[in-house]
Amino acid sequence: MTRVVMQAESTPSTEAAVFAALRHTGIVTLEILPTRQEVLTCARRILRITSHEASDPDGLTVIRDTGRHTGREGFAGLSNGEVLPHTERSSLATPPRLMMLVCARPATTGGQCLLADGHAVYADLAEDHPDALAALSAARSAFFGGRDGHLGSVFTPRPDGRPQIRLRWDSLARFSPLAQPYLPVLRAAIARRQRTLTLAAGQGYVLDNTRWLHARTAFTGPRLCYRALGEPKDVGP
Prior knowledge:
By secondary structure, the chain is an alpha+beta fold. The chain has a single domain (1-237), classed as Double-stranded beta-helix, CATH 3.60.130. Helix content is 23%, strand content 32%. The protein is built from 5 helices and 18 strands. The protein has helices spanning 12-25, 36-46, 118-128, 130-137, 183-193; strands at residues 2-5, 27-31, 47-49, 61-64, 83-86, 98-105, 109-110, 113-117, 142-144, 150-152, 155-157, 163-165, 173-175, 194-197, 203-208, 212-216, 219-220, 224-232. The strands form 5 sheets. Strands 1, 2, 3, 4, 6, 15 and 18 form a 7-stranded mixed β-sheet that branches. Strands 5-16-8-14 form a 4-stranded antiparallel β-sheet. A 3-stranded antiparallel β-sheet has the order 10-9-13, with no helix packed on it. Helix 3 (118-128) packs across helix 5. The longest helix is centred in the first third of the chain and has 14 residues, at 12-25.
């Protein structure tokens, strides 16, 4: 993964390096001063932040164990439990293209980020399980969200021909009888392609939310991260 040192006074060349990495691999790791304002300033240089119900007025979401969200579907990130590989805002017709996550305070134990390249998962299935790939790419084979969620598939082609991935594993995801038998195959392919990233204070990453799946291990201690979602300010990855 490309690593970029980025601060509030970053130069256009720094931002260009971020977008170049996103276009090439869909992910870039960051070194940022671990204050909320620094994170917000840097996020605004990379993306047009999209607010939602869990974010604060400035658009950032504080990711921590609130003590109130354990067991609530759709809010696993706000507990200290495991978070399974997923796409942010998978229930929307068009999920935000980018996600930026920066650690302000690491966990005492656990809390590692688990990242899987959807292109690699797609290639894995195409080579070893084409039947699974066909079922998971079929139109109307997956539904994500509540009553107003999105009916689609795990894999869909983008205009440039590259696959787009959309996924979640909780009760807000339902799969067709055709796709259901292949979910263990999909889980295994994701696990094979997963990378572990341990973030210290001030470290983070930006990823293409339509390409990379992200997850988290369970943790103890006062882990706190800032997350921003939105569209790239450059032409996009």
